Amino acid sequence: MKFILALLVTLTAHAESEKGGEDYHPMTNLSEQKDKSAAVDKDESDILQRHRPFYFAYGHDTSKLQLSFRSPLVRTWPLYFGYTQLMFWALQADSKPFNDLTFNPELFYQLKTPSSGMLKSIDFGIFSHNSNGKAGPASRSYNNSYVRVNFEKELKHWIARFSVQVQDLYNFDPGNEDIQDHIGPLTLNLSFIQLFDGWIDKSEFSLQAFPGGKFANHWDYGGYQASLSFRLGGVNIVPAFYLQYYKGFAETLLNYSQRVDVFRAGIIF
């Protein structure tokens, strides 16, 4: 975390020099705008932005629902507050309870690199908290700071994206002090967008992998997720169809040490 905070001094100077760039548009004062109504609408849309995938996926034992957004904190810096909530919903049970939730607020700085070839951006996670909000023996929580490097390559018909996240986990709850056996310091993401042309539109196939072990040396004890989303061309429905397969550990915080093998289907926004 100290390393990331030290980098912010350099990054702030870089952000000041990049304010006129095409990829970063800070909000402006409302008093300076001629069309104040349009400016208010744009300001409100800029404040609440998409962060991680927003989806609902139905499963046999538990369904999965994820909500996520981010919001800029400073007009002239790409410094963000992000929030993600992952919920596991037992829809087949009588009272339809949420078996477990993960609350994940975070503070991060996103450095855009529009002129660096395949390198699209670098995210500096200053502070991230993960908790299931429970008390007693069921309590699970930890903090982490991270650096995530994001790459993108646009080919003739489709887009390839790849990210590598290196993180430091700390401040473990007594109920999950061994969570590093299943959530290590490395997370890999690979996705391919618009794989098909024709009646299947905006298709995306994604793979995520995180090995277990304090040094990411136990691939058998980590987690793996594959997903496919797509829309039907010519159908004016906003949500896309969504398929997800998860295998491994740490899908939920509550049962992070239990291996799962589950397929789900639903929609993604």
Structure explained in plain terms:
It is a single chain. This protein is mostly beta strands and 269 residues long. It has a single domain, classed as Outer membrane phospholipase (ompla), Chain C. Helices cover 10% and strands 50% of the residues. The protein has helices at residues 2-17, 36-47; strands at 49-50, 55-58, 63-72, 79-89, 98-112, 119-131, 141-154, 159-170, 186-193, 200-212, 218-232, 240-248, 260-268. 22% of the residues are buried. The model is unreliable at 15-24 (pLDDT under 50).
List its traits.
about 270 residues; mainly beta; 13 strands; single chain; 12-stranded antiparallel β-barrel; globular; Outer membrane phospholipase (ompla), Chain C; about 10% helix
Main beta-sheet strand count, sense and barrel state: 12 strands, antiparallel, barrel
Average of the residue pLDDT scores: 89
**Total helical elements:** 2
Unreliable spans: 15-24
CATH class: Mainly Beta
List the domain count as a whole number.
1
Task: Indicate the CATH topology.
Answer: Outer membrane phospholipase (ompla), Chain C
Helix content estimate: 10-25%
Sequence of strands across the biggest β-sheet: 2-3-4-5-6-7-8-9-10-11-12-13
H/E topology pattern: HHEEEEEEEEEEEEE
Instruction: Report the C-alpha radius of gyration, rounded.
Output: 20 Å
Give the full name of the CATH homologous superfamily. Phospholipase A1
User: Can you tell me the overall shape?
Assistant: globular
> What structural class results from the helix and strand content?
mainly beta
The appropriate CATH architecture is Beta Barrel
Q: What is the tally of beta strands?
A: 13
N-to-C span: 33 Å
Strand content: over 45%
